[in-house]
Amino acid sequence: MMKKIAVILSMLITVFIGFGLIIPVLPLMVKDVGARPYNLGLMLAVYSAVAFVMSPFWGRISDRVGRKPVLIIGLLGFAVSFLVFGLAKDILWLMYVARVIGGGFSGAVTATAMAYIADVTDEENRTKGMAFAGASIGMGFIIGPGVGGLLGNISIPTPFFVAAGLAVINAIWGVAALKESSTREERLARPKSTGSRWRAFAGALKYLYMVDFVAQFSIATLEGVFQYFEMSKFGATKTQIGMMFLISGLVGALVQGGIVQRYVKHGREVPAMYTGLVLSGIGMFLILFSTNFWTATLYMTIFGASNTVIKPTLTSIITKETTVGQGLANGLLSSMDSLARIIGPVLATVLFEIHHDIPFIVTGIIVIAAMALVMSYKKFSESRHTAVDNP
After folding, report:
1. Count of domains in the chain?
2. pTM, entire model
3. Domain for residue 194, yes or no?
């Protein structure tokens, strides 16, 4: 299995190093133009709004023409978006343009990579494949923020230029090394990913799509206000923020690549989701009590590492049970992520303006309450299987 997905996993690592590079400096670039925290929320939301619209399109295209060309196009689009943002300097509207470009190509990379892995793995190994993908993304976020915090000491735009270069290198590497996941005949034989994305939002799986929304909503909340919150709590610097994400990402990658891969087998995804939701919610509440670099890092790591259990487990179930085609199913997952990232940062930054603690309290409650959605999936799925076994 690893031989089939090694190149795509390596690409995911370097793509998300690029994403990680900009984490410690993005809020500072927005702040430096005199904008308030809610401008960062809007900027994050604009990216996600465009991704929400475009992700199903890329899913259908990748089902039709193959995963490889769509991935290459997406990587080049990312390169342009990072370059434009780095050049924006103190021009706020140009920052928004860069985010629109990045959002437009987002679904061409992440959702297509997940569909690629689903193509080349069987049901027995799919959970492992998704866990490796999650660990690769986590590895990118391990390296990226720490390096980004250091590069930001050269100049705040520097991480954006480095991220653009990484995206171009990935595109060239993809052309040279990535093999298409299926033949033309196999693509024609796939269930067609046609019609609305909401065709995939049906039956028991709709509850898992909602769980995915909640998990990504919580991450988007953190991204929108965490740096501002810790700056106000103890004067956190961009280097410290980068190190917090580095440590949290390292633990998250170990959880995904170790615990999820080794212990979450078919039929055990549901208990894993329960555990991830409870601990993730607790971690969100604990962030309120951070008083220095070490406590902030610990509480963020509890939240982040627990959250990393949720995505690969629900993705594994969806890719096994979907009937609308892997491209559209993963495209809808990407769209749910984007919808969460539209609402999350805006709501979080608006609530942050009211009181710094409110975003974390509200999000922690929502995450723990999402266990009810997992229960609904389990009940619906069991009743469906009972009906099939006893017609």
Report:
1. 1
2. 0.77
3. no
